[in-house]
Fold these 3 entries.
Entry 1:
Amino acid sequence: MEGLAKFNGYIKKFEEFILSYSILLMAIILVANVIGRLVFNHSLKFAEEAGSMLTLIVTFIGVSYCARVGRHIIMTVFFDIMPPKGKKLFLFISSSFTTACLLYLTYLSSNYIMGVYNTGRVTPALGLPMWIPYMFVPLGFLLGALQYLVILLLNITDKTSYHTCIDPIPDETADPEIFMMDREPMADEAPETDPQDSKE
């Protein structure tokens, strides 16, 4: 597992690099385009095209990053009431199914990229081969599949339950007081007072 953790760390750095610089470059291009159009009455011809490409890159690389940090939308209504063993089984099934789906999408999108590559299509403004920005689609699916595979392996090899690669799901039966410490009191719950304060 140490080798897997090290490899996953490299993927994390790659994701953060691509996402951060893509968003930064997108902001610079789009802001420069607005300034050029309003101030100099001349817009950048490639701005819309570059913005679309960068949005595509951020979207699909974000699939993997959101899986890593647990930011995908999830429904936990039934999951929260499951016993620990039920949660473990549910995470095993969901991680396996999601990994398989993402690998299948990787296969389909890779075939599409090969078709685009064979046609030799280029973008209108930049003249960039279309397969270059499109290759981030299967890459994002593949990295996402790897993240869910890591989650699956963590749930197999560790006694605790994981729905992300970084944070285990705490066992609520271990120490219930831990989960009551940060909980805000309900409207019908009277706040606890110190007996000495009441005497004063």
Note: The helical segments are 2-39, 47-69, 84-119, 131-134, 136-157, 176-181, 195-199.
Entry 2:
Amino acid sequence: MIRLLFLQNMVISVEILSKSKLEKCEKRTDSNDKLNCTTKIVINMAVPSGSSGGEAFVVAEIVEVEENSTNNMQTLRVPPDVPFKPQEFFVKTRKCQPDAGANVVKICERLRDEDGHIIEHTRVAFSTY
């Protein structure tokens, strides 16, 4: 069981996408028998973007972990602050204008009849590789 505490600047909810436990063991140079083992918990989470768009911090404190092998509750260290700044990107696409030629939109143009009039609901697409 992992319980997280989130503080500061309008972080309403955080979605935990995945969690796993990593154990790394290294052989000590001074002993033939003993291994130096460390266990880490890795949490992958999604933080929703706020409406303000300002920089905020997520302070995640792993309060306690229950080991499957024992009934002991362990208190783990507090991870450092995780800064995040929500970003929104706006891209204006160049859609085919009803009267635009290839010199305007570059990638698409309307078909024209023999007199130069635009044929409705048609488009010539050019692709470059």
Note: Confidence is low (pLDDT under 50) at residues 1-11.
Entry 3:
Amino acid sequence: MIEHISQYAIEDCLDKHQLIQDLESALFILDVFSCELNNVDSCVPDSEEVKALMAEIGSVK
């Protein structure tokens, strides 16, 4: 999901508000399923990485 959002940001397909909303949703999913995601053999960003990306965009809740 984060890669999908990032790709749209690179292509300027989303406005800043929509991008922040999508990242907030991703952050919620990461927080809710963090234990399960930690047990999966894949590269999953942690919530601090998502918050840093949101800060770069210009807003953190």
Note: The two ends are 19 Å apart (CA to CA).
